């Protein structure tokens, strides 16, 4: 039985038609790229391919581009970062990745002002989103004017709007 280091060197110096590893860096790079390729999978909005019993449904067609899912935009409190993304039909959405300001409307006076977010308070949408301090519609943040409930969809609209809530 060979020691692991000698075995590794034999693998590294291996020459074939498809893999030409000359040193350890080439070997590591190849395996990193190979592992990344295995993790990529097309996710879609289509119904499940299996019944509740575990039996597979008959496939009528392959996955379509129109059914692909984009990764969720997880808006956080931080330096302003936006991105415009083209959607189906040539339309566009403005994605908000992070922001430090929010447009807060006071219902009693009907005035809107741009104020700084002091801290994240809670998100009732999900325990996971609450734990990771992700801003979605319905999340509550503490601002300079008081507590505000987010009324916009920052991942879709590209802006944080909120309503001042009384405590």
What does this molecule look like?
- The chain has 167 residues and is α+β, with helices and mostly antiparallel strands.
- The chain folds into 2 domains: 4-39, no CATH class; 76-164, Structural Genomics Hypothetical 15.5 Kd Protein In mrcA-pckA Intergenic Region, Chain A (Roll).
- Helix content is 20%, strand content 28%.
- It contains 4 helices and 8 strands.
- Strands 4-5-6-7-8 form a 5-stranded mixed barrel.
- A hairpin with a 4-residue loop joins β4 (101-106) and β5 (111-122).
- The chain is elongated.
- 11% of the residues are buried.
- Residues 1-18 and 24-38 have low confidence and may be disordered.
Radius of gyration: 25 Å
Q: Summarize the amount of helix as a percent range.
A: 10-25%
Task: Report strand order across the widest sheet.
Answer: 4-5-6-7-8
Specify the structural class: alpha+beta
| Intertermini distance | 72 Å
| SSE string, helices as H and strands as E | HHEEEEEHEEHE
What are the low-pLDDT stretches, counting only 5+ consecutive residues below 50?
Answer: 1-18, 24-38
Short summary of the structure?
Helix content is 20%, strand content 28%. With 167 residues, the chain is of the alpha+beta class.
Overview features:
about 170 residues; alpha+beta; Structural Genomics Hypothetical 15.5 Kd Protein In mrcA-pckA Intergenic Region, Chain A; five-stranded mixed β-barrel; three-stranded mixed sheet; 4 helices; disordered N terminus
SSE layout:
Blueprint: H1 4-12, H2 24-39, E1 76-77, E2 81-86, E3 92-99, E4 101-106, E5 111-122, H3 127-131, E6 140-143, E7 147-150, H4 154-157, E8 161-164
Parallel strand pairs: 1-3, 4-8
Antiparallel strand pairs: 2-3, 4-5, 5-6, 6-7, 7-8
């Amino acid at each position: 039985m060979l020691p692991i280091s000698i075995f590794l060197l034999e693998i590294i110096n291996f020459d074939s038609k498809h893999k030409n590893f000359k040193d350890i860096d080439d070997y590591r790079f190849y395996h990193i790229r190979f592992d990344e390729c295995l993790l990529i999978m097309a996710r879609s909005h289509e119904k499940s391919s299996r019944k509740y019993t575990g039996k597979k449904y008959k496939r009528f067609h392959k996955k379509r581009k129109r059914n692909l899912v984009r990764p969720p935009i997880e808006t956080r409190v931080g330096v302003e970062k936006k991105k415009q993304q083209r959607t189906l039909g040539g339309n566009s959405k403005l994605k908000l990745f992070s922001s430090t300001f929010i447009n807060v409307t006071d219902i009693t006076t009907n005035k809107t002002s741009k104020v700084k977010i002091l801290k994240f308070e809670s998100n009732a949408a999900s325990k996971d989103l609450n734990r990771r301090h992700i801003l979605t519609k319905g999340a509550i943040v503490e601002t300079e004017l008081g507590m505000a409930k987010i009324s916009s969809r920052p991942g879709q609209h590209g802006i944080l709007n909120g309503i001042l809530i009384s405590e």
